[in-house]
Write a structure and sequence with these properties.
With 240 residues, this protein is α/β, with parallel strands linked by helices. The chain has twelve helices and five strands. Helix 1 links the parallel strand 2 (21-25) and strand 3 (46-50).
């Protein structure tokens, strides 16, 4: 993986792609984090082009009028193509690189996983609310959503939602779970006392942190805390 970073407006567009994909990403954005996990899991060749959401270049606006981030640029015989929406991008990567399949081969389980990804959107909303109110831990929305996933892990009887190794659902929800650990920086005792409420989910989180793919893209709780402590200043980078 190679990495480009630009912080000023008006710079030239990057050169056409050769034999690797390009991910346009905003630092600390969980949706881009989600895509990078899948790229790493698939051992795909890619580079990251980091954008400043407050100074998006004109060429990027022209290629992406909806200003969606992340964006995956893909080389094809007909020229470079663009994909938007992290869920769509991740599904594309799983189909394009059949090695190490992340979706279940069982259509019903795959559909259930899709529903759980949608359900997890409630946790995303809850965590946003939590981080925007001085990290007030205990959001009822977060607790309710974690309970759904706690019961799902118990029902599946496996270490991961994907079975004995992380699958698509595991990687798709991980970026937000990783960010929840920043709450330990606010009140470690209050955070840890929630663990007995979700023993399966807590163990799952411990195992995910040991996964090689997760470790390559991980940030520490203190890094997230420092970032979201100034969440309003970084709001564009988060909400995109």
């Amino acid at each position: 993986m190679s990495f480009y970073q630009h912080k000023t407006a008006g710079f030239n567009a990057p050169p056409p792609l050769n034999n690797q994909m390009r991910l346009y990403h905003v630092d600390m954005n969980p949706y881009g984090h989600r895509v990078m996990l899948i790229l790493e899991a698939k051992k795909a060749k890619y580079e990251v082009y980091q954008l400043d959401p407050l100074h998006l270049p004109e060429w990027f606006r022209e290629k992406n009028p909806r200003l969606k981030i992340p964006v995956l640029e893909i080389p094809t015989d007909q020229g470079d193509k663009y994909l938007f929406e992290s869920v769509v991008i991740c599904d594309y990567l799983d189909e394009r690189f059949p090695r190490n399949p992340l979706h279940s081969k069982d259509p019903y389980i795959k559909a259930q996983d899709r529903l759980l990804i949608e359900r997890f959107n409630e946790l995303i909303k809850g965590s946003l609310e939590c981080f925007d109110t001085n990290f007030a831990f205990g959001s009822e929305q977060i607790i309710q959503t974690l309970d759904v996933f706690e019961k799902e892990l118990a029902a599946r009887g496996s270490n991961y939602f994907g079975g004995q190794r992380p699958g698509m659902l595991d990687y798709m929800i991980w970026p937000w779970v990783e960010r929840l650990y920043l709450l330990r920086c606010v009140n470690e005792h209050k955070f840890d006392e929630k663990r007995p409420m979700f023993p399966n989910f807590a163990d799952w989180g411990d195992q995910m942190q040991l996964d090689d793919v997760v470790k390559k893209q991980s940030r520490s709780p203190s890094e997230y805390f420092d970032y979201y402590r100034n969440a309003r200043a970084h709001s564009m980078g988060y909400y995109l």
